[in-house]
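Can anyone check this?
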Amino acid sequence: MPENVANKHTETATAAAGIASEPAQPPLCVDLDGTLIKSDSLLDELCQFARSHAAELWRLPLWLAHGKARLKREVARRAPLDVVRLPYNSELLRWLQGQRRAGRALWLATGADESLANRVAVHLGIFDGVLASDGQTNLTSSRKLAMLESKFGHGLSSQTASRTSRPSAFDYVGNSTADLPLLTSARQAMLANPTPGLRAAVRMRRIPVARTFIDRRPLGRTVIKAIRFHQWAKNLLLLLPLLLSHNLQRVLVARAIAAFFCFSFMASANYLFNDMLDIDSDRRHPGKRLRPFAAGDLGVAAGLGLAALLVAASLALLPLLPSAFAAWLAIYIVSTIAYSFYLKRVALVDVLMLSGLYTLRMLAGGAATGTQISHWLAGFSSFLFLSLAMVKRFSELENLRERGIAATHGRGYLVADLEQIRAFGTASAYAAVLVFSIYIARPDVESLYKHAGRLWMIVPLLVYWLSRVWLLASRGELDDDPVIFAMRDRVSLAVGVGVVVVALLAV
């Protein structure tokens, strides 16, 4: 046999022996909550359950009395999440898809109920099997480890594995301290969006971490976005009664500012509460899916804690204000809770409620400073804010029509209602202008404004701005929330400055 042919045979045999001797990679087991998805599915389902089955919330402690697995089963059955729109950890998912293409065996091992886990596995199409809670056994921590060891055999700890060449039974990807037993026993431990507690435990136990998958926005920006700091602009209405009274005493100004922050803290807590209830619905919306809870950047547990802090801050300011303000704040809280749970799904009632909450802000501001609100201001604000609430619903429906969707999710409107809502909203807009025009024509206005006639210059500004808002909404160019639009739109800001300048000139 020629020498070069013999060498080729030797190289082939050596390579084949090397391939045969190389151990196959063990199964890769992946947790779901906080790992494959950025949120906690049980808390998301509880929010969905509270929104759709509020009358059955009393059942939760009864189910929990039979074990957490039973609670997960009952809630998952009544409030299923849309697995297509879950906030998946994009970095981890891309890597898992690559492992799947390479022939690696992947298992979804989760404490979530098996109904949800199976639907996630079917949707992603990358898992060889699913191990999940079954309504009786809550498959977390040591129970999950026992299940994996019974399925794949007893493995070595990651510390031992690093000192030997023997393969372990499985690799594992987790995110919380509940995963510590599995990360310790896995051949390779991997983390995805790890909690601070897990990071500390991994360092303390010196567990080698093969990979870390991070997919989460910075916490500071996420919190500011969640409390909707920009929406505090609405609460400037609390200052309006005092400004229009022309009685800017220091004590009253201090009360108005305290009322502004007291109301803003409570309003932000309400926004958090509302967004948590709307998690699954927001994930179906092209813009709202980026909200912190829907995107999984802020968990429900953290949201509840943040809401509690905001409520505490609001209550801390309450003793500095009159009891009448506290009464209006209580009405606001009750109204927004009713809106979040039910009224937002009732057509027309929802927009009446939204417009009423704007007027309520002025009533609360007037109560804080002892300033009487005129019937004219109440009428003007009612029509104006009803128009803005209508344009918000109109723009939502217009966006749905462009996407070929016939009805809103979680609302009481159809795309077929567009023209009627446009009629309601534009009529309300011009009614607001009419009320303002009649007001400034009254003789008693001259007692408040030295040059009251100059206020007529505000009328064309109002007509222009309201007409432009509705025109842009009809073209599909308006953001769902007109307040956000006005804060970002240069023309709207210029009109606002013009109104203020005219008012000062009139004074």
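Reply from J.R.: I decoded it. The first strand starts at residue 28 and ends at 30.
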